[in-house]
Amino acid sequence: MREKSGERLYRPRPDDGHRHCLVCRECGLSAEVEASAVESWAAKLGEVMGFAEVEHTVELTGVCNGCHPGRTAPAPTEQHT
Length: 81
Ligand SMILES: [Zn+2]
Ligand SMILES: [Zn+2]
Known about the structure:
The chain is elongated and about 60 Å long. The protein has a three-stranded mixed β-sheet with strand order 2-1-3, with no helix packed on it. The protein is an alpha+beta fold. It has a domain at about 20-65: Dna Ligase, domain 1, CATH 3.30.1490. Helices cover about 15% and strands about 15% of the residues. It is built from one helix and three strands. Bound molecules: zinc ion (2 copies). One zinc ion binds near residues 38 and 39. It comes from Streptomyces tunisiensis. InterPro entries: Fur_C, WH_DNA-bd_sf. This is Transcriptional repressor.
């Protein structure tokens, strides 16, 4: 899919298809996530409550596959000198 030429969005706009990310608390890896449920929920809530221009901030953090405790990885040895 290509965006309409001549219209460049260089600023994130909450009401225009913004994205949400899931960030790993361990290594800081960020993965884009599908949050259509949040979008529709927020939009519906705005209608129900009679609010316009409803914006939201969603912070999602977790532990990625690479940092998952269940994974058998050698524990990093701290070396302070
Ligand atoms: Zn990680
Ligand atoms: Zn959103």
